[in-house]
Structure formats: structure tokens, C-alpha cells
Automatic annotation (TrEMBL):
The lineage of its organism: Bacteria, Pseudomonadati, Pseudomonadota, Alphaproteobacteria, Acetobacterales. Keywords: Hydrolase. This is Isochorismatase. Residues 4-163 form the Isochorismatase-like domain. Pfam families: Isochorismatase (PF00857).
Length: 196
């Protein structure tokens, strides 16, 4: 019998706050889709794993996260800060599992794989933020670990990268690449219809 777990990645305030440099345009739509997936998984008794990106304030656990180009930037996602907490509108299901990560991939340095193995999961469904960083990295890492991966494109989001490369372009680019060899890319409505 197969088991699929929903990975809710980084549904955190830093992406919802209007004054945040990482604010996701129109986040209400993607959050509604995330909540629809959570609700369906909860109702079906399937596992929901909530994942948050968190760092110590002094940055000792950040590695190259904030100096990837050789110039240090301020550490964000600081533990205990409002920006690192879940978005208030995020649906929480009883029995939901929680994982803290410190890198883009939800597998890197976390207990996620041990949790999935203990659940007997051979598949993951990915939603959350940001499409092109943590969701993409986690989808690729899951594929490399031989999980079946469903990437729910309209249940992800990202800040615009420039006035010529908007969130819709980011989602399309990531989805096209993942669909070519890493994951099945679906819409929330299509995935929920398949769940029955």
C-alpha cells in the first residue's frame, strides 16, 4: 500500500507581510490552494508535514545562505521573530507533523526523510513558498531519493524577480523544468479531483 505525504513548505509571515522584500504578490490565492490541499489530506487521514525555515539570530547555522555571492547579507527567518512564524491563515490539522530546516531543501539536515520512511511514504506532494527556491529544491531532492513527486504549481508562490520576470513566469519556468524529469506538475483542482 502506498502512502503520500503533503509537504507544506515555508508558509511563513515573511512571504505575506506587505512590507517584506519577499512578499508574494496575491498570496491569498496560493494560500487558499494550500489550505484546500491540507483540508483534503486531513479529511483523508493522510500525513501533512509543515516545514519552516528558521535560523539563529547570530547566523551560526546559516552557512552560505546569506553570503552565497561572497558578501554577507543580514540573516532572516530568525527564530522567535514574527517573520519566521506560520502565516495566521494557514490551516493546521490535528496530528500535523512539524519540521525545521535551515537550507532550501526540506531534506538537507532535517529529519524529514526519517519521518517519511516511518510513515511508509513513497510519494510527496509539494506546495508552499518559494516556488523557485525551497519548493523546487525539495522536489529535486525528493526525486533523487526515489519518491514520486507531485508539484502543485498554483499552490506555490514567489516574489517577482524583476518587472520582466514575474511570479507567473517563475512558476511557469520551474514547472516546465520539473515536469520534464523530476515531478508531475498539477493544479490544485486537478490534484484534488484525482484524490476523489
Amino acid at each position: 500500500m502506498t502512502q503520500t505525504a503533503l509537504l507544506v513548505i515555508d508558509a511563513q509571515n515573511i512571504y505575506a507581510a506587505a512590507d517584506s522584500p519577499l512578499c508574494v504578490p496575491g498570496i491569498g490565492a496560493s494560500l487558499a490552494n494550500i489550505n484546500a490541499l491540507i483540508r483534503a489530506f486531513g479529511a483523508a487521514g493522510r500525513p501533512v508535514v509543515y516545514i519552516r525555515h528558521v535560523h539563529r539570530a547570530d547566523g551560526r547555522d546559516a552557512g552560505r545562505m546569506f553570503d552565497f555571492g561572497g558578501v554577507a547579507e543580514p540573516v532572516s527567518f530568525v527564530e522567535g521573530s514574527v517573520e519566521a512564524e506560520y502565516i495566521p491563515g494557514l490551516l493546521q490539522v490535528p496530528g500535523g507533523l512539524h519540521v525545521i530546516k535551515r537550507r532550501y531543501s526540506s531534506f538537507e539536515g532535517t529529519e524529514l526523510e526519517a519521518i517519511l520512511r516511518s510513515l511508509g511514504a513513497d510519494g510527496v506532494v509539494i506546495c508552499g513558498y518559494m516556488t523557485n527556491f525551497c519548493c523546487d529544491s525539495t522536489a529535486r531532492a525528493a526525486h533523487d531519493r526515489d519518491y514520486f513527486v507531485d508539484f502543485i504549481a498554483d499552490a506555490t508562490g514567489a516574489p517577482d524577480l524583476s518587472e520582466n520576470f514575474l511570479q507567473k513566469n517563475i512558476i511557469e519556468a520551474v514547472s516546465t523544468t520539473l515536469n520534464a524529469g523530476f515531478a508531475r506538475v498539477k493544479s490544485t483542482s486537478d490534484y484534488l479531483a484525482e484524490m476523489g
